[in-house]
Amino acid sequence: MSALSRTCPPPPVREALGGEAAVWLWPGRALYAGPSLRLGPHSGAVACVAVGVDAPFTVRRTPGGELRARTALIPPRVRHHLTAGGDRMVFLYLDPGSAEDRACRARFTAGDHGVMTGHEAEAGLLIRAAAISAHSPDRRIAAWTDEVTGHRTPSFTDPRIAAAMRRLIAADEPLPAALLAAELGLSESRFLRLFRDRTGTSFRRFRLWAQMHRAARALAAGENLTRAAADGYFASPSHFSTAFHAMFGLPPSALLSRGLTIRCLDPLV
User: Fold this and answer.
1) Are the beta carbons of 261 and 16 closer than 8 angstroms?
2) H/E stretch holding 155
3) Considering just the CA atoms, what is the radius of gyration of the chain in Å?
4) H/E element holding 55?
5) What's the pLDDT at 12?
6) I need a surface site. Which of 95, 128, 178, 203 has the fewest CB within 10 A?
């Protein structure tokens, strides 16, 4: 753990009634564990690893056939309908094209038309997924996501990129790459290349995740969607809802209506 990460304040938490469902959010990935969301046909802008904790599920592509699995990776922008066969699901959302996404894709052994099934470590993942709850330690959750992807999040030894990441997460307004590059004494093009090399994703994508992270922190603290949208510097609650829906394939209200434990985690831990 870096010196910077040790100074990070504890993540805010909003406890759900009974602790049945939980969301963990890092800039760059998110995890949901709880009852099946029972969504209609949808797609999102991120890759989704689906895990049927207590039974297989069915993925129907629209258009296309269907696959039955206990673990599956659904690529971004693939319209699909997932039907759970059991009571609990785990969904891990990954930034498309990131180092984690690429490593994770290589761990699936079957599938077709872009949807992959049969994680090579499926048996162990299912055992540990069954133990995930709203009260699971954050380190155990991070370890499980590393096991899914096969890619351990690197330690950010470059203090310039660590500083830029923290600035993005803490900022109360959008920060352009040119501004951060100038603060670090780098050209914008050099900064953007360095940012991707060190984080595994683009500056623009990380900034959007940082906005979601800020909005989620407000929700975790008990704020409403209006305040969460403002904290994430979205133009309005509807803008936040639209961006969230486009990214994850569902509106934030679909989660919040269930009650959640929300944990916002530091990417440098």
Assistant:
1) yes
2) none
3) 18
4) none
5) 40
6) 178
- State how far the Cα of 66 lies from the Cα of 95, in Å rounded to an integer: 24
Give the model confidence (pLDDT) of 3-30 as tens digits. Answer: 222 223 334 433 333 348 999 998 889 9
Pairing between strand 88-94 and 108-112? unpaired
Q: What are the phi and psi torsion angles at 140 (to 5°)?
A: -70, -40
Residue 57, pLDDT above cutoff 50: yes
Across the beta sheet with 261-264, the strand order is: 13-14, 261-264, 22-26, 29-35, 88-94, 47-52, 71-74, 115-119, 108-112
- Torsions phi, psi of 73, nearest 5? -115, 120
Residue 163, helix vs strand vs coil: helix
Q: CA 241 → CA 179, 226, 246, 247, 251, distances in Å? A: 28, 10, 8, 10, 6
pLDDT tens-digit profile of 116-157? Answer: 999 999 999 999 999 999 999 999 999 999 999 998 765 556
Residues found in the chain: 269
Query: What stretches of 113-228 adopt beta strand conformation (E)?
Result: 115-119
CA distance 222 to 13: 9
Compute CA 135 distance to the chain's CA centroid, rounded to the nearest angstrom.
Answer: 18
DSSP string covering 164-189, please?
Answer: HHHHHHH-SS---HHHHHHHTT--HH
CA 189 to chain CA mean position, Å: 27
CA distances to 33, 105, 119, 181, 202 from 148, in Å:
14, 10, 8, 34, 22
Res. 193: pLDDT tops 70 = yes
